[in-house]
Each structure stands twice: as structure tokens, then as C-alpha cells.
């Protein structure tokens, strides 16, 4: 499970259904322990608190032990390759490994070097499959709740912001397309990689909104950008920030997703973040269940 | 065994198709070597014979600009070059033979640095020229400063040396690991646009042209690797139109750019990371067309003057999973001929041999390799038709990575003869304590 590009619609739906099942069992305080006796390694080569905690909680709730590893920066600089580091941790008796790394493709390449199950928790600017699954589940819940059916087929979702540097965008495009949705991407032209397959490109947010059933507002990742791709956060907010006025003007009342942490006053206004169409807290809540579903599925595949 | 009475040793290379770009000859004949030098057929029995029936015999290849190991040319580097048919190698960095290695080694030529790393100053080009540097350049790390390049061209001209520049705009290529395009976009890799190379090529042409117009004296600037069809078109058009003779620029292409595209990066294979990046099939096909074309007219210099293997030694610690940490490039000597031969096809073989021998010698302003009697016997014997599957682990010198892994290639170097000694033979390196043993 290293990227949504490798999964088809049925496989994605199965994971979402499984997360829903875990959510129901958790509500009933009847969670099973399919990972009892197993050890999950949390290997974060890149800083993260939320995602790491979410994975750790998911593993523990399913009965697994966890091994935590944090190594920020290049292992090679310290005289060891990532492949060697990961093999060393695997030798501790790890069954599943959750990997986050700043270089695209590290989890893909590691498949040749380890036998434990690999779960990608974000690889550079490439993919962040569990975040996209969270977004898909939150959308499915929302559409289901408003009575338009839980299927994403035929729905239009706009991903807004820094598409160029976003692993969340890439995974969302794969996942949404696999479930039959139409994907628009919208942002400053400097951050729209026009050769990205599977999406339609917009630089006018209002035009994209007028066709959208939901919007996914990406965090502006100042830390990944080399130099300035847009003149100022204030101008970004004027052109691409989501405000209540803008939502109302669209006449569509789209659902609003935002993978945290959010920058209020840059990607969206507080009014939208805390408003009735915001799915932001639902996304956080779904995070643990999606990760439980992924871990349990991966463990089964190994048995 | 050698003739002990005269201490003389003769080698006969029998029945091969002998292609000599210097004389333009292409015929089936024997070549004779005595004591390291090509001679007219002397009659009598040779001390040793290479059966070259069905093979092609040509001058040893010349590498115009490899990157040498930092600590000096070691046995690994030398063997890779010899296994690739190279008998002369110019290199950036320390193109000196390391002290602890005495095995056979191609003749080494040094390309001195153009600038002092990390500064906007020229390196001591005069001193370097005196110490034997044949050209100047910063290899895979060009400084990117236009004024510094202009001054470098002027100063190198005073020393009658060329500047070797990797055409890459510093700002447009910053952080880039792949050619801009669908592969880079999908894999989340920063792309280097074609514009980066085109801007740098245009800049170089304008600078070299202006300098030569003021004071014509010869070719000044050599582009070490083109990857983009549009940039190659700019070079070709300029050479077609310029009234300066000789034209002030030349350009090379790496052998693997004739065969690989950005698809080599799929699966995040670090072997696909090269600089300049592999681009798409249209670029590749145009480079093949230009490389194969040669001179359109006697006045028109070939747009692609020579091929380079694009060889770079791998670092001791190479992470097989971290694409961004992997330095671009790979150990390419041994597969360069096969890659180019596969791409160009059988009918272009004489042109390919020019691109690997007289072309690079000309760019280096060195003596033209020739098979005339009296010349030093540096030769490559080629099996041009045999197909084989490239496995990096089973090369004569196994390598960690190559973008051609798993590809079916056509042709490979059968024998390399260095100063009359057989130093590479069908995938192995003969023990060479004495010349006698080598030839036997």
C-alpha cells in the first residue's frame, strides 16, 4: 500500500467500507484486535506529529505494539542508507512499517529491500494515500448524509492550491478518478503542473466552484517551495482563499475539505473553516479509522 | 612467445572489417602490430593472432569528458573504460592515475576547472594549461554565471583552449531531478524545462560568436551534453548559418540519451536520474537523427560533434531507495557503445565510429586517431551484431545501476588493444604482468 495509483475503485471502496466498520465497532466499544501480537514500525524520516500519532493510535487500538523511529535529514549524510536503516528496524521483528520520507518513491523502492508490509505515510511531493482515503471517506459520508447517495461517481471535486508540491493532491486525483469523480485543480499558474494526468486545470476559483460539489483546500506548503511562487499570502487569499461570500456566490454550496494543519486567512476564512459545510474535524476523526483499515488489510495480506 | 632475439612482438588482427575514419577506409583486411605500433603486413608468422572474422576493427574510442574519481583514476575506472573500448579518456576533476594502481589504463587527459568552486572567480587557467589541461570546464556543476562564462571563454582563448560547458540555466534548473513532463508531474519530481537547456545554448552561442567575430581563431565553446531536441535544433541551425569558419561551438550527446527517455525514472529508479535529464521520444529521435547525420556539406560541421559515455563514478555509499539523494549519472563506459549502436543502427556504424574516435579527438584538439602504419596500436574490436541483455551485475565490471538494465542491446566491445597489448578480451581482463602474456 504505497500509493493510490496502484489501487482500483473496488480496492479503495473496500478500504473505505472497512474504516466505516471500524468506526461503528469503536462507537460500540467492540473493536477487535486483528493486530494482536504484531509489531508496527513507525518510521518518520520527515517531521510529523499528527500523522504519526494517528498511525500509532490506529495500531494500538487494533492490538499491535509500535516501534517509533524518527530520523530527520538524510541517513546517507550520517553514513547509512535509508535501505539499511529500514532493514535494521525490520530485523527487530517488525511486521508492518509505516514510512514517511521527504524523497518521492522511497516506499516504492523499499519493497525490493524488505519483506514486511509497507504503508506510505507521505513520500516527498509524490503521494499521501491515507490522507486521500480520509478525504474520500469524509466526502462519501457527507454526500450520503445529504441524501445524494454515497457514491462519488459523477461528482465534481476541486482541489485548490499548491498542486505542484502536494502529495495530497496527487493521491486525491488518483482516488477520486478511481471512484468515478471528475477532478478539477485550481491554483496560481506557477503551482499548476499542466502535465499532470487526470485533472482539469483552472486558475479562476469562482469558475471552478461553479461546477463543484466539494472543494479540497490544500495547505500552502511554504517549507517545500523554493522561492516565491506567488507574490504574497494576502494576494493568495484574495485570489484563492475560500470565503463564505465566495461559497454563497457559487450557488453550489460545496462541501469543504482541508487536510490540516490549516492556515486561517490564507487558504480559507475562519467562517468557512468553522461553518456548516466544513468537513475538517470529520477528516481528523476519520483519520484513525482509515489507518486502522489500512493496517488491518495489510496485515491480512501478509498472513 | 616473443622473439627473444630481437625482443620484438607481433600481433595480427585477422580478417576483420577495418574502419578507419581518418582515412575514410572501410574494408576487410588484416592489421599488424609490432611492439605497440601499427605496421604494414610484414609476412611471416605473428606471435599472436586475434581472429576478427565477422568483427569490426577501429581506433580505440576517445572519451571527451568523463568525470574522474575524486582521489584519482583507480583500477575500476580504468577497467570500465577499457571494457568500453576507450583508450583515451579526458576527464573533469583529478584525471591522474592514483599512485597505488599500476594496471593498464587508457591515456588520460585532464580538463581543468574553469572557476574556483563557490566563487565568481576564474580558476588559474594559465597554470592549469601549463600543467597539461587540454580544456576547461566545471563538469557536472557549471557555475551558471554569464559574465564569468564570457571571461572564461576569452581567457581560455588566450591559452588556445576550449571551454566545456554543460548547457543548463542555473535558475531554471534549480532543484530539478527529471525532465519537465508527465513522468515528473506524476511522480512528484521537480522538472527541468527544455527552456533551461535552450536558454543556456543560446547564451553560449551568442557569447562564443561575439568573441570569435572580434578575433577569429577557432572553436571556443563545447556543449558537453544536449538532451533537448529544440536545443539541438538551435545548435544545428547556428552551424548551418554561421559564416565563421571554423564555427565557434560544438556539441556532444551521451550515448544513453539516444536510447532512454524519462520513462527510465518510472518506479523511482535512481538509475534514471541523469543530468541533463532523459526527455521524451521526440527529443531522442531528433538527437539520433542529428548524431547520425554527420556533415551535410563539406562546409557544415556536424551538429553533434561527438558522443560521450556520460560516465560518472558512483559514490561509495549509494542509497538504492532515495532518488533525491542519488547524484545524477552512473558508471557508463562499458555500455556506451552498445547503447549508441543499438540506437543508430547498422547502417550508421561508420558514423558511430567517427562519433567515438575522430569526433572527440577533434573536440579535445588532440591528434586524430588513425590506423595508418606507424601509429600507436590503440584499437577497439567490436562485435556489432550480437544481441545481449544488459544486466548491471554481469558486466565485466559490475555496476550498481544503469538505466539500460533489462534492455536488449545490440553490439559490444570484444577486444580492446592498448599500445599493442590486449587489455580486454571477451568480457575479461587478461593478467598482464608482461606484454607477452597479454597478447598470448
TrEMBL record, chain A:
Pathway membership: Pyrimidine metabolism; UMP biosynthesis via de novo pathway; (S)-dihydroorotate from bicarbonate: step 2/3
Enzyme class: transferase
InterPro entries hit by this protein: Asp/Orn_carbamoyltranf_P-bd, Asp/Orn_carbamoylTrfase, Asp/Orn_carbamoylTrfase_sf, Asp_carbamoyltransf, Asp_carbamoyltransf_Asp/Orn-bd
Entry keyword set: Pyrimidine biosynthesis, Transferase
Annotated residues for binding of L-aspartate: 78, 167, 219
Residues bound to carbamoyl phosphate: 50-51, 100, 128, 131, 260-261
UniProt catalytic activity: carbamoyl phosphate + L-aspartate = N-carbamoyl-L-aspartate + phosphate + H(+)
EC number: 2.1.3.2
PROSITE patterns: CARBAMOYLTRANSFERASE
Residue span(s) of domain Aspartate/ornithine carbamoyltransferase carbamoyl-P binding: 3-140
GO molecular function, one term: aspartate carbamoyltransferase activity
Pfam families, alphabetized: OTCace, OTCace_N
Record-annotated Aspartate/ornithine carbamoyltransferase Asp/Orn-binding domain positions: 154-297
Similarity remark: Belongs to the aspartate/ornithine carbamoyltransferase superfamily. ATCase family.
NCBIfam families, sorted: asp_carb_tr (TIGR00670), PRK00856.1 (NF002032)
Quaternary state and interactors: Heterododecamer (2C3:3R2) of six catalytic PyrB chains organized as two trimers (C3), and six regulatory PyrI chains organized as three dimers (R2).
Function: Catalyzes the condensation of carbamoyl phosphate and aspartate to form carbamoyl aspartate and inorganic phosphate, the committed step in the de novo pyrimidine nucleotide biosynthesis pathway.
Protein name per its UniProtKB record: Aspartate carbamoyltransferase
UniProt organism field: Alienimonas chondri
Automatic annotation (TrEMBL), chain B:
Keyword DNA damage part of the UniProt annotation: no
SUPFAM superfamilies in UniProt: Composite domain of metallo-dependent hydrolases (SSF51338), Metallo-dependent hydrolases (SSF51556)
Sample GO molecular function, one term: dihydroorotase activity
This protein's record includes keyword Nucleotidyltransferase: no
EC number: 3.5.2.3
Keywords per UniProt: Hydrolase
UniProt enzyme class: hydrolase
InterPro entries given in the database record: DHOase/Allantoinase_Hydrolase, Metal-dep_hydrolase_composite, Metal_Hydrolase
The protein's name in its UniProt record: Dihydroorotase
Amino acid at each position: 500500500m504505497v500509493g493510490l495509483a496502484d489501487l482500483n475503485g473496488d480496492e479503495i471502496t473496500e478500504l473505505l467500507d472497512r474504516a466505516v466498520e471500524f468506526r461503528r465497532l469503536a462507537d460500540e466499544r467492540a473493536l477487535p484486535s486483528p493486530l494482536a501480537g504484531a509489531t508496527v514500525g513507525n518510521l518518520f524520516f520527515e517531521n510529523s506529529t499528527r500523522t504519526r500519532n494517528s498511525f500509532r493510535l490506529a495500531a494500538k487500538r487494533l492490538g499491535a505494539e509500535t516501534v517509533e523511529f524518527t530520523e530527520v535529514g538524510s541517513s546517507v549524510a550520517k553514513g547509512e542508507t535509508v535501505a539499511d536503516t529500514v532493514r535494521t528496524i525490520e530485523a527487530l521483528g517488525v511486521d508492518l512499517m509505516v514510512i514517511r520520507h521527504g524523497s518521492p518513491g522511497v516506499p516504492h523502492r523499499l519493497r525490493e529491500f524488505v519483506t514486511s508490509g509497507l504503508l506510505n505515510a507521505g513520500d516527498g511531493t509524490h503521494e499521501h494515500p491515507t490522507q486521500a482515503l480520509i478525504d474520500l471517506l469524509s466526502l462519501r459520508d457527507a454526500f450520503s448524509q445529504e441524501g445524494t447517495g454515497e457514491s462519488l461517481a459523477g461528482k465534481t471535486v476541486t482541489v485548490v492550491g499548491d498542486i505542484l508540491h502536494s502529495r495530497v493532491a496527487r493521491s486525491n486525483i488518483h482516488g477520486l478518478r478511481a471512484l468515478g469523480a471528475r477532478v478539477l485543480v485550481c491554483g496560481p499558474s506557477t503551482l499548476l503542473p499542466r502535465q499532470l494526468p487526470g485533472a482539469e486545470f483552472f486558475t479562476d476559483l469562482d469558475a471552478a466552484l461553479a461546477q463543484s460539489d466539494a472543494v479540497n483546500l490544500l495547505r500552502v506548503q511554504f517549507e517545500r517551495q523554493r522561492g516565491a511562487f506567488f507574490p504574497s499570502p494576502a494576494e493568495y487569499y484574495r485570489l484563492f482563499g475560500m470565503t463564505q461570500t465566495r461559497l454563497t456566490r457559487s450557488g453550489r454550496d460545496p462541501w469543504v475539505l482541508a487536510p490540516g494543519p490549516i492556515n486561517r486567512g490564507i487558504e480559507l476564512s475562519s467562517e468557512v473553516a468553522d461553518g456548516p459545510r466544513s468537513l475538517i474535524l470529520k477528516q481528523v476523526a476519520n483519520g484513525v479509522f482509515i489507518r486502522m483499515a489500512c493496517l488491518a488489510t495489510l496485515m491480512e495480506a501478509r498472513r | 612467445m616473443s622473439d627473444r632475439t630481437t625482443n620484438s612482438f607481433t600481433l595480427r588482427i585477422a580478417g576483420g572489417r577495418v574502419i578507419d575514419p581518418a582515412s575514410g577506409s572501410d574494408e576487410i583486411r588484416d592489421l599488424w602490430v609490432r611492439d605497440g605500433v601499427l605496421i604494414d603486413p610484414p609476412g611471416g608468422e605473428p606471435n599472436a593472432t586475434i581472429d576478427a572474422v565477422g568483427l569490426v576493427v577501429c581506433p580505440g574510442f576517445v572519451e571527451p569528458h568523463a568525470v574522474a574519481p575524486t582521489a584519482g583514476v583507480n583500477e575500476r575506472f580504468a577497467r570500465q573504460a577499457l571494457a568500453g573500448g576507450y583508450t583515451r579518456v579526458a576527464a573533469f576533476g583529478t584525471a591522474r592515475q592514483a599512485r597505488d594502481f599500476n594496471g593498464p589504463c587508457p591515456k588520460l587527459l585532464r580538463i581543468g576547472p574553469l572557476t574556483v568552486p563557490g566563487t565568481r572567480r576564474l580558476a588559474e587557467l594559465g597554470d592549469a594549461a601549463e600543467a597539461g589541461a587540454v580544456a576547461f570546464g566545471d563538469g557536472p556543476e557549471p557555475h551558471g554565471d554569464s559574465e564569468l562564462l564570457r571571461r572564461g571563454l576569452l581567457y581560455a582563448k588566450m591559452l588556445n583552449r576550449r571551454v566545456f560547458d554543460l548547457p543548463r540555466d542555473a535558475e531554471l534548473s534549480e532543484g530539478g531531478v527529471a525532465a519537465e513532463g508527465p513522468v515528473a508531474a506524476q511522480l512528484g519530481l521537480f522538472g527541468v524545462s527544455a527552456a533551461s537547456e535552450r536558454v543556456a545554448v543560446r547564451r553560449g552561442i551568442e557569447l562564443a560568436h561575439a568573441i570569435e567575430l572580434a578575433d577569429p581563431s577557432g572553436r571556443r565553446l563545447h556543449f558537453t551534453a544536449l538532451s533537448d531536441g529544440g536545443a539541438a535544433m538551435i545548435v544545428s541551425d547556428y552551424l548551418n548559418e554561421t559564416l565563421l569558419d571554423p564555427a565557434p561551438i560544438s556539441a556532444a550527446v551521451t550515448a544513453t540519451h539516444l536510447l532512454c527517455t524519462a520513462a527510465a525514472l518510472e518506479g523511482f529508479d535512481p538509475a534514471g536520474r541523469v543530468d541533463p535529464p532523459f526527455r521524451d521520444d521526440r527529443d531522442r529521435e531528433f538527437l539520433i537523427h542529428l548524431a547520425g547525420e554527420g556533415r551535410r556539406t563539406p562546409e557544415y560541421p556536424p551538429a553533434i560533434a561527438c558522443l560521450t559515455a556520460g560516465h560518472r563514478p558512483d559514490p561509495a555509499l549509494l542509497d538504492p531507495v532515495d532518488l533525491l539523494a542519488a547524484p545524477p549519472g552512473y558508471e557508463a563506459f562499458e555500455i556506451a557503445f552498445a547503447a549508441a549502436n543499438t540506437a543508430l543502427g547498422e547502417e550508421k556504424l561508420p558514423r558511430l565510429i567517427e562519433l567515438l574516435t575522430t569526433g572527440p579527438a577533434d573536440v579535445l584538439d588532440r591528434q586524430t586517431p588513425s590506423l595508418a602504419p606507424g601509429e600507436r596500436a590503440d584499437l577497439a574490436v567490436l562485435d556489432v551484431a550480437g544481441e545481449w541483455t544488459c544486466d548491471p551485475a554481469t558486466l565485466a565490471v559490475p555496476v550498481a545501476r544503469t538505466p539500460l538494465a533489462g534492455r536488449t542491446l545490440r553490439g559490444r566491445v570484444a577486444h580492446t588493444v592498448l599500445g599493442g597489448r590486449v587489455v580486454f578480451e571477451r568480457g575479461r581482463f587478461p593478467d598482464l604482468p608482461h606484454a607477452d602474456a597479454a597478447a598470448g
